[in-house]
Amino acid sequence: MTLTGQTWVAFGPAGAVGSVHRIAGGYTFKLLNDDDFRAAYPSLDVAKSALHAALLPGAEWPEFREH
Q1: CA atoms of 57 and 9, how far apart (whole Å)
Q2: How far apart, in whole angstroms, are the C-alpha atoms of residue 14 and residue 5?
Q3: Which end of the chain, N or C, is less packed with Cβ atoms under 10 Å?
Q4: CA separation (Å) from 14 to 30, 33, 62?
Q5: 62 pLDDT higher than 80
Q6: Who contacts 26 (Cβ-Cβ below 8 Å, separation ≥6)?
Q7: Rounded to whole angstroms, how far apart are CA atoms 19 and 4?
Q8: Exposure b/e, 29-47, CB count within 10 A at least 16 = b
Q9: Which residues share a beta bridge with 20?
């Protein structure tokens, strides 16, 4: 995956939980404890939803801040 430089950090109540990155042809994400990026997603909204789904059950929707 080739990162393009756009990054959104996901924040939960206790701080950062992961990040979404723009890649050539879509988006990917990584939780803080992940060793590598997850799959490629076609849109930012889908990548944000996938990151939220990867959090513990019952986790609040994180706040995404572009960096």
Answers
A1: 20
A2: 26
A3: C
A4: 17, 15, 10
A5: yes
A6: 40, 41, 42, 43, 47
A7: 14
A8: bbeeeeeebbeebeebeeb
A9: 8, 29
Q: Is 58 helix (H, G, I), strand (E, B) or coil?
A: coil
User: Across the strands, what pairs with 63?
Assistant: 11
Q: Which residue has the tokens 């076609």?
A: 42
Tell me which residue has tokens 């890649």: 23
The CA distance from 42 to 59, in Å, is 24
pLDDT tens-digit series, residues 46-56: 999 999 999 99
CA atoms within 13 A on the CB side of 61: 6
54: tokens are: 């990867």
Residues 6+ apart with CB under 8 A from 29: 10, 18, 19, 20, 21, 37, 38, 41, 47, 48, 50, 51, 54
